[in-house]
Amino acid sequence: MPQSIEQLKEAVRGEVIEPTHPSYDSARKVYNGMLDKRPGLIVRCVDVADVKAAIAFGVENGMLTAIRGGGHNGAGLGTCDDGLVIDLSRMKGIRVDPAEKTVRVEGGCVWGDVDHATHAFGLATPSGFISTTGVAGLTLGGGIGYLTRRYGLTIDNLRSVDMVLADGRFVTANAEENSDLFWAVRGGGGNFGVVTSFVFQLHPVDIVQFGPTFWDVSEAATVLRAYRDFIKTAPEHVSGFFAFLVIPPAPMFPEQLHMKNVCGIVWCCTGTAEEADKALKPMRTVGNPLLDHVGPAPFPAVQSLFDPLFVPGLQWYWRADNFTDLSDEAIARHVEHGSNIPTMLSTMHLYPVNGAAQRVGKNDTAYSFREALLAEVIVGVDPDPANAEKISSWCKNYWDALHPFSAGGAYVNFMMDEGQDRVKATYRDNYERLVEIKSKYDPANFFRVNQNIRPSEKGRAG
Ligand SMILES: Cc1cc2nc3c(=O)[nH]c(=O)nc-3n(C[C@H](O)[C@H](O)[C@H](O)COP(=O)(O)OP(=O)(O)OC[C@H]3O[C@@H](n4cnc5c(N)ncnc54)[C@H](O)[C@@H]3O)c2cc1C
């Protein structure tokens, strides 16, 4: 077991980056520019052997240890101050099995890597709404995206994981092997070990019908009421998230709409153009759309459309909750806060999480909120650190206004570091089982830089 840094350097094929290393400042950066953490050591692993060596080093030296996949976590849970960062960003292997319609993905991939590989076969698996997010963190929290209504959450398409545990064991978890661990990693985050690879089910997704419908923000109450009713029963090939936003001055939008505060729905339909047209008709007759532009696009292009807008290094603060419905009073509060977006990149999204995602039982995976209709995320974003307070207080006030109408907890991947009560509210009656599994696989809570599930005292002693 490597105990000294010199032994660690000999043991790994990847890089061992200390604060004096020329790459240290770029290696320690994460997506959220609000975070400026200074780890004591970063190990950029290239294979499972490196991961094993890094974990052993962290355990031997009693180091606080973070796991970094894509580095996108809003709360910065892919890094830490002073401790060890096990960085998987160089583990980028992907193998598509077109006959089985599955893909094996190493733990350092981002979704753009996966979309690129699977699109060549006209296939995709449900992920998110942007291509730069890490596969690992997104999957282990649940995974909400354009394909959720049709094919479920990302975890509903997860078939197997390979992991290295805190005691150094390399294990596979799936429906047959270590099934308790497999249950836990489907929503329980990075609490149980380092996932070195994932196997996902793929589906025939190639060209989708994509684009926005925007309305003046003065029509928001009418649009939101119509959207709430529409999305409850819309065919599952239709997805579309509701947003309050400021239209950016980008050439793809008509100039007269630039910097206009609007509400809108960003559609993504996996049916044909005719099926999408027919299904979207009821929403297109609501109010007076300023822009309605849904057309064919390759799925990877859709996934990466927002990448140039949401670049790494921006100030980023968000708050979230799940909703089983939206009362007219809740809609009135949305209109009040959503009409006052503080900066051009700030936004509020309501993602539909019904359809296929609701057909999995709330105790079938660690992810609990299967009855939710909408996952809300209120996002304050701006390049200027001087606006950090402005965007975070807008978020908090907006969240406070809507929380009483929520189902009581949030999607774990849309949370900041909000304390144990919020973690428990996320998992509800799955929390106790998560504690049992955590106590079995990580009794000393070595993996604790995450939305932490604390092992029981008994587990810790054992
Ligand atoms: C711009 C942006 C867009 C987003 N869009 C979506 C979206 O559309 N849908 C959605 O569901 N979520 C979305 N998210 C949220 C995202 O899922 C979380 O931020 C997630 O934590 C990011 O994963 P990561 O691997 O990039 O993060 P990291 O910061 O690298 O890691 C986050 C957490 O995952 C754990 N972890 C990372 N890698 C591993 C591993 N290999 N093994 C074990 N644990 C690991 C870490 O312990 C850490 O707690 C978005 C986030 C951002 C910033």
What does this structure look like?
The protein is an alpha+beta fold and 462 residues long. Helix content is 29%, strand content 23%. It is built from 15 helices and 19 strands. The chain has helices at residues 5-11, 24-27, 48-60, 111-119, 135-141, 148-151, 179-185, 220-233, 273-284, 299-303, 328-338, 388-402, 420-427, 431-441, 457-461; strands at 15-17, 41-44, 65-68, 84-87, 94-97, 102-106, 123-124, 158-164, 170-174, 194-201, 203-204, 207-216, 238-246, 261-269, 291-292, 295-298, 315-323, 347-352, 374-382. The strands form 4 sheets. Strands 12, 13, 14, 15, 16, 17, 18 and 19 form an 8-stranded antiparallel sheet that branches. Strands 5-6-10-8-9 form a 5-stranded antiparallel sheet. Helix 8 (220-233) packs across helix 11 (328-338) and helix 11 runs antiparallel to helix 12. The mean pLDDT is 96. The structure holds flavin-adenine dinucleotide (FAD).
Give me the secondary-structure topology.
Layout: H1 5-11, E1 15-17, H2 24-27, E2 41-44, H3 48-60, E3 65-68, E4 84-87, E5 94-97, E6 102-106, H4 111-119, E7 123-124, H5 135-141, H6 148-151, E8 158-164, E9 170-174, H7 179-185, E10 194-201, E11 203-204, E12 207-216, H8 220-233, E13 238-246, E14 261-269, H9 273-284, E15 291-292, E16 295-298, H10 299-303, E17 315-323, H11 328-338, E18 347-352, E19 374-382, H12 388-402, H13 420-427, H14 431-441, H15 457-461
Parallel strand pairs: 2-4, 3-4
Antiparallel strand pairs: 1-2, 5-6, 6-10, 7-11, 8-9, 8-10, 12-14, 12-15, 12-16, 13-14, 13-18, 17-19, 18-19
Helix pairs in contact: 8-11, 11-12
The protein binds flavin-adenine dinucleotide.
